[in-house]
Amino acid sequence: xxxxxxxxxxxxxxxxxxxxxxxLPLATLEAQLLDIMLxxxxxxxxxxxxxxxxxxxxxxxxxxLHMSLHLAIREQVATDRPPGIKTIYTNLRCKLxxxxxxxxxxxxxxxxxxxxxxxRNTMPxxxxxxxxxxxx
Length: 136
Hints:
Helix content is 67%, strand content 0%. The protein is mainly α.
């Protein structure tokens, strides 16, 4: 249904945002993305302007990558993949008490593991990822 193309994925965000604004029904993925978008009001101006998705200079952080990492963390926790991540998440929730802070900390670890894998041209190392998460 969806392409791996960066522009296509951004269109999914914009379409979910448009549907939300017009009170239209959302597909499951769109609803998940909308939850994340609503938690990030700092990105609403970008989402209000679909032409801005052509821009590559978002400043310090790419909002689409940021929101996609939230989605990845939520999917990992929901499926407990890699095994043990759900327990780590639950423990961090008790420790930090703020879901977004927990996800942001976990996203940092995830992005580091993904960067390393890309640099080495290998699959992400799940054990290193879980170890980094356990040290939060």
